Amino acid sequence: MKTNIRQFALSLFLLAFASCKKETLPPAEPVPDSGHASVVSGTPKVYQLTRLGGDSIAYYDDGRLARVGNRKVRYTIYNYGFNTIKAKTYGGPFMTVREEHKYYTDVATGRVYESEHMFHATGTGRIYQYKYDALGRLSERINKFKPGERFLYEYNADGDLVSVWYWTSTYVLDNRLIMDYRFAKEARVQNRAKINNSYTQLDPYLNIFGKGWKHMPKRYLVLKGGTTKERDHIYTYQLNGDGYPVSCTIDNITDPKNAKPFGTFTYDYKVQSQP
What we know:
This protein has 275 residues and is mainly β. It has a single domain, classed as Porin (Beta Barrel). Helices cover 3% and strands 48% of the residues. It is built from one helix and 18 strands. The chain has one helix at residues 2-10, and strands spanning 45-52, 55-59, 65-70, 74-80, 84-91, 96-105, 112-119, 124-132, 138-143, 150-155, 161-167, 173-180, 189-190, 215-216, 219-224, 228-239, 245-252, 260-273. The longest helix has 9 residues, at 2-10. The protein starts with a helix and ends with a strand.
């Protein structure tokens, strides 16, 4: 789990999508416009995220995501069925299949209720089942055949995800992730880009995990065993005039006496006038 969280922290966006039942090549690489397309001033706008950091994001004509990633490094293509989404992640020197994921969704709600995951590098796999609270928010993710392994999700009164607990298959509390949306009493940042929290090990872009959170976390604190600080990162967002993030700087303050920048990534959008 420690390794998985580190991988998600270093590379937040590794997944992408395709919107057809057969495997096909996704659309051409999108041309980012940094959220400054020619839109008449004062008219309502529709934003579509086209790039985050070094990963491009492509869409199909029906609006569903086709791909997120870099074709020369790592990317994932999704195929959609009636109530399933199959994902294949390609990477390595020969761009071979590295991971395969399959999500089963409820037709009425669109929420995932079970998922299968295969990791070819290690030859391991998992099947998870999902539970939701009365408000339609994800509350638990449980290993179907090793129920000791589970994630517990907690929310504040505003509906933002504030805590994720993780237990291993041997029922041992491995870590707890805590998120702060008002770090240093700063104003909260709206989650206008509709991105899932990648630290939770959920797909950042796939909107099948119940009701999403309203704001973007400004602090990610990981506690080993639920008590010992293992990682502490601060996120500082720069917004455009419409309140959409255009860049984010990450600072590592795990050791306050040796705090240092962890990295910066940018957001690019396609912006159109709302019909």
